[in-house]
Amino acid sequence: MFASALGAMVSLAVLAVGVALVPVGGAGLVLMPRMMAVLHRWTEWQRAQAGAVLGVDVPARPAPPAPAGVREQWRQLLMGTRARRDLRWTALHVVVGLPAALAALTVAGLLVNPVLEAPLWWLFPADEPLRLLVAVPVTGWRQAIGMGVAQVVLAAPLAWWALPRLARLHARACLAALAPSEADRLAERVGELTESRSNVLDAHAAELRRIERDLHDGTQARLVAIAMRLAMAREALDDDGGPVGRLLKDAHEGTEEAMTELRQVIRTMYPPVLADRGLAGAVAAVTAKAGLPVETDVSGLGAVPAAVETAAYFIVAEAVTNATKHSGAGHVTVRLASGRVLRIEVCDDGRGGVDESRGTGVTGIRRRAAALDGTLSIVSPPGGPTRLVVELPCAS
């Protein structure tokens, strides 16, 4: 307890040095996140020790992996609650832990000192003799043995009563300082749910890609082979062919229709162009088929998660389709840029006056964005122009 309290004091001093080094060539900017990571590991060890003292199960709370880059590390440090709890415990440990440790050392000293000092009473100066039982001077062996035994007998119950209580007081203070508040618990739970939803969406996107690939490479290829065989069988018959010829014709046409429907299902489920050419290429393919001039800017587009990529493709496709069919626009601009969020901006010079309640397709875009914790804003005054902006988080 005493050693950890001294360690807390040293930690506060070291952290103060780290803060002071922030303006000195930026050294503190690099050191502080690492110092806080070390402090968190120490506080987690203290939590485990406190739980063992109180006999309660304390689940470990390991720190999340440090992001790349000093800016992101500081953002994690300042926005999270973990660092504030660790600093709160360190300060409280100095205020509460140090006095409790000194009290424990005093009680332990009353028990141990007679055992160590009583046999050495004769080494003390005559004018400053050894004193046992707080103030009684020791001048002979009889006093040394008698009062030493008496002090041990009196101090033992005090130590038995006080030391465990001081340890539990320190442990409870430790757990209370490091326990997250209700707001912290809610924020952590929201973060966990956001991360789990992101993982589910990524798994769902991966499963859609697998199904699309299986349908494209398996089912569709078999339908193509069947259609080719039916076509060859039709050609092998006479011009009339009779009932068999008509059956083959119906089967051949039905197979062609099934392939057309299957391709449509594959495109709406997970567009093959997205898997083949990425989001930038898929957006270029959508705008090329728009039926009116579309200017595309994807220069700021980087890598984005698969679920976000899929949602962005369908959002762009829906927005461009709306502009083509309903706005009367002569020109559309599509811009995509990514960082911590993927920003999609679609502008047209049409008549404006977009109304979500009239089934303009904006409701579907809003739902796709909301599924990823994204936002949609649309400005469409009567007479135009219309500007639609969607932002989709790219990191949990």
From TrEMBL:
Keywords in alphabetical order: ATP-binding, Kinase, Membrane, Nucleotide-binding, Phosphoprotein, Transferase, Transmembrane, Transmembrane helix, Two-component regulatory system
Histidine kinase/HSP90-like ATPase domain: residues covered: 307-396
Top-rank taxon: Bacteria
Class of enzymatic activity (EC top level): transferase
Keyword Nucleotide-binding among UniProt keywords: yes
GO molecular function: kinase activity
Residue spans crossing the bilayer: 6-31, 91-124, 144-163
Record-listed E.C. numbers: 2.7.13.3
Organism: Nonomuraea roseoviolacea subsp. carminata
Name of protein: histidine kinase
Tagged with keyword Methyltransferase: no
Catalytic activity: ATP + protein L-histidine = ADP + protein N-phospho-L-histidine
